[in-house]
Amino acid sequence: MMMENLLLTKGQIIGEDGELIPADIRIHQGKVVEIGKQLAEAGETVIVVEEKLIIPGLIDLHIHLREPGFEAKETIATGTRSAAKGGYTTVACMPNTNPITDCVEGVRRILDTNDQEGCGVRVLPIAAITKASNGNELTDMAALKEAGAFAVSDDGVGVQSPRMMKAAMRQAAEVYVAVIAHCEEEDLLVEGACVHEGQFAKEHNLPGIPGESEAIHVGRDILLAEDTGVHYHICHMSAEASVRLLREAKSRGQWVTGEVTPHHLLLCEEDIPGMDTRFKMNPPLRRRKDQEVLLEALKDGTIDFIATDHAPHTTEEKAQGMVKSPFGIVGLETAFPLLYTHLVATGKLTLKELVDKMTQNPAACFQLPWGRLAEGAIADLAIIDLNSERVVDPENFASKGRNTPFGGWKLKGWPTMTLVEGNIVWQEPGIHL
Ligand SMILES: NC(=O)N[C@@H](CC(=O)O)C(=O)O
Ligand SMILES: [Zn+2]
Ligand SMILES: [Zn+2]
After folding, report:
1. Ligand 1 test: best mutation among 63, 233, 309, most atoms within 8 Å of CB?
2. What is the ipTM of this complex?
3. Domains in the chain, number
4. In a domain? residue 340
5. Which residues of this UniProt protein bind substrate (predicted)?
6. 133 and 27 co-located in one domain
7. What are phi and psi of 339, to 5 degrees?
């Protein structure tokens, strides 16, 4: 990619105490070299950002790109474009493709495809914990890491055997890769379980997924991880009991981290309008109490960061009804405006808290060098128009997925430009330099 030196002028950045500060940003050779007021142009291309907010590029450590194997749902090209449009500059993709990313070739293939067909957003491949994610045999984590795997996960299913999970943690600790867990105990599930085992399930006579099916794995894994020294990370936390267990583990100083999705922060089972598969995801939307606890835990730092779990499916797949349709909703293009509008504009989180939990917190949890806006930092940036107001229209998504419960929601705070290492990877149509 061509490296162009840029001068972003008349922007605003978030200061140490959360205040908005007018700022210009000079970018040379892919790095932020100077942040200040009214910087003099020195041969750069000038972009006047007109009072918009400049933040570190967003980082999403849990998405599904679907390639190889499920290209009708999403490809690396469409998924990374969707990420860029949402203000994301780094994404980590789960291995539940076909084939599952459980070998060196699979990891390399994702990196190569992104180099050739991606829009410039950085993709970190997550490799499987067990071969074919079937829970029977561990992958070669040292080789996977060497090939460029970011971490290991069997996302989509829980690792059912505690013995296998313990062995996985031992190996992961030895080669310094994190174990990222989809926590779900299948022994507590019934055939066709599709929504939270609670009020909505009862009213609609649907088989439910209990909160304990998540929490029992969280508790089990915290115990298993304790003596291994592994970094254990909990996917898409949804249940109050899981939060309680994470909080306790952290209070003892254990290396456990957790993420939460925008949909679990903003919705609960009471919001499901009926037999609408756009509200079907795993884990399911739970009680209002769980939703409230998740937000509290995110605010107080128990839950470390926000990840979308962007999970595109085709319209046909999602048209098979509540029981048969696949779990999952898309999230990359709506995450920031949703959370800005419903958590920041309502005073539940500060703007700095929200941005930190989508940038520097995920980076810090996994020792990634991105997610900061400072002199000397890599110029991964998102420019956000906090005042722009638009209605979510899934037909306009860059993602192939249209499966969102947020269609029709009126939101503020849309990204207008995304830069990775100083290169513009997406900009709102109609903006000309
Ligand atoms: N979250 C979901 O509802 N679905 C994910 C799988 C997963 O994240 O467990 C998918 O791959 O579709
Ligand atoms: Zn999962
Ligand atoms: Zn997932």
Report:
1. 309
2. 0.99
3. 2
4. yes
5. 64-66, 96, 282, 313, 327-328
6. no
7. -75, -35
Q: Could you tell me if the CB of 156 is within 6 A of ligand 1?
A: yes
As a residue count, the chain comes to 433
Last residue of a domain, one of 342, 365, 388: 365
Burial grade of 301 (CB within 10 A; 0-12, 13-18, 19 or more):
middle
Please count the helices (runs of H) and the strands (runs of E) in the chain. Answer: 14, 18
Range of the domain at 283: 58-365
Closest atom of ligand 1 to CA, residue 156: 9
Annotated binding-site members for substrate: 64-66, 96, 282, 313, 327-328
Catalytic residue, from 60, 102, 309, 385: name it. Answer: 309
Position 274: which residue type? G
328 CB less than 6 Å from ligand 1? Answer: yes
Residue 308 lies in a domain: yes
Say whether both 221 and 350 belong to one domain: yes
DSSP secondary structure of 270-311:
GG--SS-GGG--SSPP--HHHHHHHHHHHHHTSS-EE---B-
Report which protein residue has its CA nearest ligand 1's atom 3: 328
What is the full per-residue pLDDT of the chain (433 aa) written as tens digits? 567 899 999 999 999 999 999 999 999 999 999 999 999 999 999 999 999 999 999 999 999 999 999 999 999 999 999 999 999 999 999 999 999 999 999 999 999 999 999 999 999 999 999 999 999 999 999 999 999 999 999 999 999 999 999 999 999 999 999 999 999 999 999 999 999 999 999 999 999 999 999 999 999 999 999 999 999 999 999 999 999 999 999 999 999 999 999 999 999 999 999 999 999 999 999 999 999 999 999 999 999 999 999 999 999 999 999 999 999 999 999 999 999 999 999 999 999 999 999 999 999 999 999 999 999 999 999 999 999 999 999 999 999 999 999 999 999 999 999 999 999 999 999 765 5
Residues 136 and 270 in one domain: yes
